[in-house]
Amino acid sequence: MKPDFSKGLVPAIVQDSQTKQVLMLAYMNEEAYEKTVETKETWFYSRSREELWNKGSTSGNFQQVIDMKLDCDNDTILISVIPQGPACHTGEVSCFFNETPITGDSEGEVNIFKTIMDEAEDRKKHPVENSYTNYLYQKGVDKIGKKVIEEAGEVVIAAKNDDPEELVNEISDLLYHSFVLLANQGVSLQEVEAELARRFQKKGNNKGERPPIEEW
C-alpha cells in the first residue's frame, strides 16, 4: 500500500529501529517515496528549495531504511532506519532535543547532563571567583585528570562495599569531573553523545567479529 499523495506532500517521521527514538520529521512527495523504496535510503522533498534531497548526501549521515509503515489514513509515513550518524544538522542525535514545558513550570524538564556541561563550559569562558570548577581549570589537565582517576576509584570502592547511596554519590562526582575535563579539552557533550550513538548503532558487531573474551 502506498501513501496518499493526492493532497500534496506527506509527513515522514524517521525513527531509530533499535532505540525507537524519533530522529526527525521531513516531507515526501511521490518521487521521494519511490527513491526511498528503490535505494533503501531516506529521500525527502525540501519545501524551501523545492527539490529532492537525500539524507546524508552532504553530511555522510545516511539512514538505512529497515521498514516503512503508514498511519490509518495513509497520509503519514513512519520510517524505521539504522542511522549512520546524527539526524540533526546541529550534531544532535535527534532533531527533537529542545525541552518544552508540559506543566506550569516555564523551564520544563531539565536535562541535567546538559545543564552541568553548559555550566562547566560557561565557567571556562567566564571565570567566577572562589569557584571550585575554576580552581580545577587553573590547575589544568593534570589536576582534573587526577580527580577523575580518584573518583573512578571511589566508584569501585562504593560498589565493592555494596553501598548504593555512596555509589550514586561517587558516580555523580565522577561525571562532574569528567564533564570539567571535557570542557577543559574543548570537547562537547554532543560529540560524546554522537560517538555513543555510533557505537550503539554500529552494524556488523556480531560475536564472530569480536576478539575472544579473554582479550577484552
Automatic annotation (TrEMBL):
**The UniProt record lists the keyword Cytoplasm:** yes
> Could you tell me the EC number(s) of this protein?
3.5.4.19, 3.6.1.31
Q: Which reaction does it catalyse?
A: 1-(5-phospho-beta-D-ribosyl)-5'-AMP + H2O = 1-(5-phospho-beta-D-ribosyl)-5-[(5-phospho-beta-D-ribosylamino)methylideneamino]imidazole-4-carboxamide; 1-(5-phospho-beta-D-ribosyl)-ATP + H2O = 1-(5-phospho-beta-D-ribosyl)-5'-AMP + diphosphate + H(+)
Q: Which domain of life is it from?
A: Bacteria
Which gene produces this protein?
Answer: hisI
Q: Where this protein primarily resides, as one coarse class?
A: cytoplasm
Q: Name one GO molecular function term.
A: phosphoribosyl-AMP cyclohydrolase activity
One GO cellular component this record assigns the protein to is: cytoplasm
**InterPro entries, per this entry?**
His_synth_HisIE, HisE, PRib-ATP_PPHydrolase-like, PRib_AMP_CycHydrolase_dom, PRib_AMP_CycHydrolase_sf
What keywords would UniProt list here? Amino-acid biosynthesis, ATP-binding, Cytoplasm, Histidine biosynthesis, Hydrolase, Multifunctional enzyme, Nucleotide-binding
Q: Which Pfam families match?
A: PRA-CH, PRA-PH
Q: Under what name is this protein listed?
A: Histidine biosynthesis bifunctional protein HisIE
Q: Which organism is it from?
A: Terribacillus saccharophilus
Q: Does the keyword Transmembrane helix apply?
A: no
Q: Where is the Phosphoribosyl-AMP cyclohydrolase domain?
A: 24-97
Name the family.
In the C-terminal section; belongs to the PRA-PH family. In the N-terminal section; belongs to the PRA-CH family.
Matching entries from Gene3D superfamilies are given as:
MazG-like, Phosphoribosyl-AMP cyclohydrolase
| Region Phosphoribosyl-ATP pyrophosphohydrolase, annotated ranges | 113-216
* Region feature Phosphoribosyl-AMP cyclohydrolase, mapped onto this chain: 1-112
One Gene Ontology biological process: L-histidine biosynthetic process
Give the record's pathway.
Answer: Amino-acid biosynthesis; L-histidine biosynthesis; L-histidine from 5-phospho-alpha-D-ribose 1-diphosphate: step 2/9; Amino-acid biosynthesis; L-histidine biosynthesis; L-histidine from 5-phospho-alpha-D-ribose 1-diphosphate: step 3/9
Q: Where in the cell is it found?
A: Cytoplasm
